[in-house]
Write a structure and sequence with these properties.
single chain, mainly alpha, 13 helices
């Protein structure tokens, strides 16, 4: 069966989202037997080794001097903060709830670009952004019995990812993406090593868990690869909405692996967030300015270290 470029791109995006979500599920599973710093360190070693070899083979390291820029450092720091806060939220909250909150990232990036860079955002998109954050509030449910303070870590991760994406959008074009990703992955791994002792030290790892963490690292890299393929083969405005399929896979994995049944407030909040994001993408396509949302739906949609 011959598929159009857009349909192939959509399929690649769905595969990428499934890879990211399975990686998240493995991370949550591993957090039950070891501290978060150890998770960052062990899986970071697998991911950093692989991506370093790829960068070396591609010759990216010949341009190391290009990394000596404040924006590169800002991106790395925000990535580390996003990873730590995401892992803290994921270890204590249902995976579907964390995924739902992270769906607000495109809205946050659009708002950040308007506030920080003065990019034009019309009143319709501002309404969609406000509606999306109302959905986040419904999902977080402050003041209700189901509220967890760990939801603030998920919100903090969204903020850090927003800073990361805005910094990424201003990086000079001559800095190879692969080089930035490699350095970021190494920084996240080193951070895990530095936090290992304060977070409780090393816990012996069973061979099965070690294999699962290696699988998670490979799925993470596979997800980035398929997103790049998706963005290159089809129209960004058509493909970007398929990033929301990660929410569906998160709900399914939460039910199958962790027996986490989403409640009505979580489902309602998630629907509002997704609808707001889809409308924002539609408006950005209509006015011909969908670059910001596309970046937030691209290879940087999730923290590199998770």
């Amino acid at each position: 069966m011959n598929l159009s470029d857009n349909m192939r791109g959509a399929l690649y995006m769905v595969v990428a989202m499934i890879g990211f979500t399975i990686n998240d599920a493995i991370t949550k599973l591993m957090s039950e037997s070891m501290n978060l710093a150890q998770v960052m360190l062990v899986r970071g070693i697998f991911a950093s080794t692989t991506i370093t070899l790829i960068s070396w083979r591609s010759g990216a390291f010949s341009q190391m001097r290009l990394l000596l820029q404040p924006l590169v450092a800002l991106r790395a720091v925000s990535e580390v903060a996003a990873t730590v806060t995401f892992l803290m939220a994921l270890s204590q909250l249902p995976i579907a709830n964390v995924s739902a909150i992270l769906q607000a990232l495109p809205l946050a990036v659009t708002m950040g670009a308007a506030l920080a860079f003065g990019q034009t955002v019309g009143w319709r998109r501002w309404i969609a952004i406000c509606a999306g954050f109302i959905g986040v509030v419904i999902t977080v449910r402050p003041g209700y019995e189901g509220f967890s303070s760990y939801s603030f870590y998920a919100l903090a991760s969204v903020f850090c990812c927003t800073v990361r994406d805005l910094a990424t959008s201003k990086l000079p074009d001559n800095i190879p993406t692969l080089l930035v990703s490699t350095v970021t992955s190494i920084v996240v791994t080193v951070t895990g090593a530095l936090l290992l002792a304060p977070m409780g030290g090393w816990t012996p790892i069973e061979p099965r868990n070690l294999a699962l963490m290696a699988l998670g690292a490979m799925l993470l890299l596979l997800g980035y690869h398929f997103i790049i393929m998706a963005m290159r083969v089809g129209d960004v405005s058509f493909i970007s909405p398929f990033r929301y399929t990660s929410l569906l896979s998160s709900i399914l994995l939460g039910i199958i692996i962790f027996s986490e049944l989403p409640d009505m407030l979580m489902i309602l909040g998630a629907m509002i967030i997704v609808a707001s994001g889809l409308y924002t993408l539609y408006r950005e396509r209509t006015v011909g300015r969908y670059e910001t949302a596309a970046k937030s739906a691209g290879p940087s949609m999730g923290p590199d270290g998770i």
